[in-house]
Amino acid sequence: MKREIIQTSDGSTTIHLPDWDECYHSKHGAIQEAKHVFIKNGLSLFEGKSISILEIGFGTGLNAFITYLEAKKYNQTIDYVGVEAYPISAEEVLQMNYVAELKAETESLVFEKIHQCDWEEKIAISDDFGLTKRKQFFNEIGDEDKFDLIYFDAFGYRVQPELWSTEIFERMYKALKKDSVLVTYAARGVVKRSMQEVGFTVEKLAGPPGKREMFRATKQ
């Protein structure tokens, strides 16, 4: 499938799939969306803790990189697992302007390491941030009681409704520890019902720029 690099409204880049008219991140701002959905409404809940994170849709590495940066502010130790069935190319990585847009030039080697490190191995990105990239389809995830936080960042329901099914959310529920959370940019009723069906308690929160609402689901 054809992929092209575009600039979003906050100046940060993302990948656009013209055949689907779908983007890896919000056209209204890739960085803004990541910070609002995954950091403000997810990572910040675990200040001062050591946590395990599962990202559904590793994509451009933006969420992993921002988590690495923000975890320092929250005094966290992170064990990060990113699942991606179709990794982006080295050429596409070079066109992502996240280091500059986040004013993180001193961490440019970290962004490179995130993408250049081997798949299927746990890599020490720093003393406080371990990364495992898994090339895997979401319906193959079989982790149980492992994660404190899930970033659910799959392509939208409009183009891939199967990624938002009860079966997938059952896998997410099993993968989480008790009293842990899943955050996603999505806010469709059908998604909420699938989450609730497997046992999640779902709350509707204010969405990122350009989107009215988002969901946070808790395993109690």
Walk me through what this model shows:
This protein has 220 residues and is an alpha/beta fold. It has a single domain (29-219), classed as Rossmann fold (3-Layer(aba) Sandwich). 27% of the residues lie in helices and 29% in strands. The strands form two sheets. It has an eight-stranded mixed β-sheet with strand order 6-7-5-4-8-9-11-10, with helices on both faces. Helix 1 packs across helix 2 (62-73) and helix 6 packs across helix 7.
What's the CATH topology name? Rossmann fold
Oligomer: single chain
Q: How many H/I helices?
A: 7
Give the helix/strand class. alpha/beta
Q: Kindly report how far apart the N and C termini lie.
A: 39 Å
Portion of residues in beta strands equals 25-35%
**Total count of strands:** 11
**CATH class assignment:** Alpha Beta
State the share of residues found in helices, binned by percent: 25-40%
Biggest sheet descriptor: 8 strands, mixed
- Record the strand order, biggest sheet: 6-7-5-4-8-9-11-10
Evaluate the radius of gyration: 16 Å
CATH architectural grouping: 3-Layer(aba) Sandwich
Distinctive features:
three-stranded antiparallel sheet; alpha/beta; 220 residues; globular; 7 helices; Rossmann fold
Task: Provide a quick synopsis of the model.
With 220 residues, this protein is of the alpha/beta class. It has helices spanning 30-40, 62-73, 90-94, 98-101, 108-116, 166-175, 189-197; strands at residues 4-7, 13-17, 22-23, 50-56, 77-83, 122-126, 129-134, 147-152, 176-184, 201-206, 213-219.
